[in-house]
Amino acid sequence: EFMQASWDIEEVQAKGIQHLASFVKDKSAFPYLQTCTEVITLAMRTHIDSLDLQVQGCTLLLEILSQALEQGVMMALDESVAGCLLHTVRKHSENEEFLSMLCTLLMMVSASEVAAENLRKVGIIPDLLSILSRFLHNDKICFSCCAVLWSLAVSENNADQAVLASALPVTSAVLQEHLQNGVVAESACSALWALALQGCLTDSDYEPTAALLLEALRMNPKRAVLVKNGCLALASLVRLSESAALAVLLDSRGSGVELIRDEYRLHLDEPGVAEALCLLMNEMVQYDEVMLYMRSQKMEKLLCEIKLQFPFS
């Protein structure tokens, strides 16, 4: 009430946010803090030019959302909050340090399907792509933005086909830039999988995207989630194009069939990885030429091994 009575006075908003922040460590205060997100974002929007207030508000929202995730509470922030956050992104789009924090906040917000849908409605995707293009070197920003893209692209109500299509070159550039950074590569592979599911690729994209995903698998063979999502992305590409299937077989860095074998052996205790590998092989054998090659490589033997290893899956 104190903050709402004096929206126009920056000092009141700053003091209010500081006072709310003092309750963060008190677990019993969490249910009340949950109800303050709109007040905090409105203070940020009203005093958009004050970087200090933006940082304080963003830090407090991060604390509240972190506690929510810890307690298994999904906070579905409404469209007005999503609009406020977008407003802040646009106003401070050149401040790399603050954007890094803000993109982490957006990633946490987008974990909720409702909040992700609200971010999509307010039109945040072009802004995310612009941030990625400008700060391709920043691993924290790239990780967060790709995670947000994944959340927005897998939304069932997606009406942003054209906007999402423009995400492919930027997401591919992120993966290329951070191939050796497993955390960022994992996030980028997930985003590429979502874009493939949404049909955002054209004929000329299948082969280079498949080659890039294979390279990510080779560079990060022990990261189970990356391997799983990378294989699911490849399966989506192969389903759409024989050229993607051939790219997996005849990759310049070595046979994709050997890579499939190696990944299975590395992740014998990961049913999710085995399932993704099977899905990829299932899509590949839809093409006669590819199936003949896989037979010549004795892939039935691997499939029998998988069946024995996971008899109840």
Automatic annotation (TrEMBL):
InterPro entries for the chain: ARM-like, ARM-type_fold
Gene3D superfamilies reported for this sequence: Leucine-rich Repeat Variant
**Catalyzed chemical reaction(s):** L-seryl-[protein] + ATP = O-phospho-L-seryl-[protein] + ADP + H(+); L-threonyl-[protein] + ATP = O-phospho-L-threonyl-[protein] + ADP + H(+)
From the UniProt record, list the coiled-coil ranges. Answer: none
Q: Which SUPFAM superfamilies match?
A: ARM repeat
Superkingdom: Eukaryota
Annotated TM spans: none
**UniProt-recorded name of the protein:** Serine/threonine kinase-like domain-containing protein STKLD1
Organism in which the protein naturally occurs: Erythrocercus mccallii
